[in-house]
Design brief:
There is one protein chain. The protein is α+β, with helices and mostly antiparallel strands. It folds into 2 domains: 77 residues, Ribosomal Protein L25, Chain P (Beta Barrel), CATH 2.40.240; 85 residues, Beta Complex (RNA Polymerase Alpha Subunit, Chain A, domain 2). The protein is built from 3 helices and 12 strands; from the N terminus they run H-E-E-H-E-E-E-E-E-E-E-E-E-E-H. The chain is elongated.
């Protein structure tokens, strides 16, 4: 069947490839593929069962979707070797809470939502955490070096790359600006008052 005919039967055409392997055309049920994607197949190993005893440990390397309906059109599976390290991007998950007083005045910005790591397929983490409880107005950045990296996993990102940052809200910025501009006025009035007192004494 052609690719369009497969899709009309709720099947998604795809390929399986890997190092030292011949690329193989496959077809998977759309419902099962959607389920696998929801369960993290883009960043986690899944078992691809092609029948007749052919089961592969794979990662979804590329997924093409319909521009409007967002239904899957084609999928590329990468067959991994369980004894060879691979490079893969995994999600960054925020843990902890902002200190009291920051939540209302600052917005938390996720500068890096995925981070690239290398490890054996069996050690691929579901996610990597970063703790935001230490953030403050003075220390408002968290970097890759602040990530909690599991054992047997190596970071493939620059240590100084920003992961999380705090940005002051407009309302808080206006309040700070108003407080800054108000202070010189008080000093100026004080100087004027002292000048008037000196004139009165003369």
């Amino acid at each position: 069947m052609t690719s369009n005919q497969l899709r009309r039967h709720d099947l998604v055409p795809g390929v399986v490839y890997g190092r030292n392997l011949t690329t193989e055309n496959v077809q998977v049920e759309r419902v099962q593929l959607d389920k696998a994607i929801r369960q993290g197949a883009l960043t986690q190993l899944v078992t691809l069962d092609l029948g007749k005893g052919k089961e592969y440990a794979v990662l979804v390397r590329e997924l093409q979707r319909h521009a409007v309906r967002r239904s899957p059109l084609h999928v590329d599976f990468y067959r991994v070797s369980m004894t060879e390290e691979i490079k893969i991007e995994v999600p960054v998950r925020v843990v902890g809470a902002l200190a009291t007083g920051l939540a209302g005045d600052y917005v938390l910005i996720h500068n890096l939502e995925m981070v690239r790591v290398s490890c054996l397929p069996a050690h691929i983490p579901e996610y990597i955490t970063i703790d935001i409880s230490g953030l403050s107005a003075e220390n408002h950045l968290l970097h890759v070096r602040d990530l909690a990296i599991p054992a047997n996993v190596t970071l493939e990102a620059e240590a100084d790359e920003t992961v999380i940052s705090l940005s002051r809200t407009r309302a808080a910025a206006k309040r700070a600006e108003a407080a800054t501009t108000a202070e010189p006025e008080v000093v100026s009035k004080g100087k004027a008052a002292r000048g008037e007192e000196a004139g009165a004494e003369n």
